[in-house]
Design a protein that fits this description.
single chain, alpha+beta, Threonyl-tRNA Synthetase, Chain A, domain 2, four-stranded antiparallel beta sheet, about 50% helix, DUF2294 domain-containing protein
């Protein structure tokens, strides 16, 4: 692999922004991706709509927004795995995600088949 860690992280951020816009209908305000050992950690900011923030004012609404958003992302998991494979040449062995209804941030963690950070050093 002849790309730098920073280049790969920027490509992942750009691809996930595009995926969010095309698959979920609107993109995040900002995305930061970090390659850490055998993981890619992605923070997406500004992904909740004003209506979702309103729903999050009580516990029932908050849980509903989290569940719906996580289900939407999980339904596109094969696309996400393909994006990571295409950019990094690494297979995703597991995927974890959660959303903060307080800050409007989503965290995505892609666990890879090998230590990508070590391969890039």
């Amino acid at each position: 692999m002849d790309k730098s860690k920073g280049t790969l992280e920027a490509e992942i951020s750009k691809a996930l922004t595009y995926w969010e816009k095309t698959y979920l209908g609107r993109g995040p305000v900002s995305v930061k991706s970090d390659i850490l050992r055998d993981m890619i950690v992605v923070i997406l900011r500004g992904i909740l709509t004003p209506a979702e923030y309103s729903l999050c004012k009580d516990k029932e609404g908050l849980l509903s927004v989290k569940e719906n958003r996580n289900s939407l992302v999980e339904s596109g998991l094969e696309d996400l795995k393909e994006i990571i494979l295409t950019i990094t040449d690494q297979e995703v062995v597991s995927f974890h995600t959660d959303i903060s209804t307080h800050t409007g941030e989503r965290v995505m963690v892609f666990k890879l088949s090998s230590d990508l950070q070590n391969k890039l050093s």
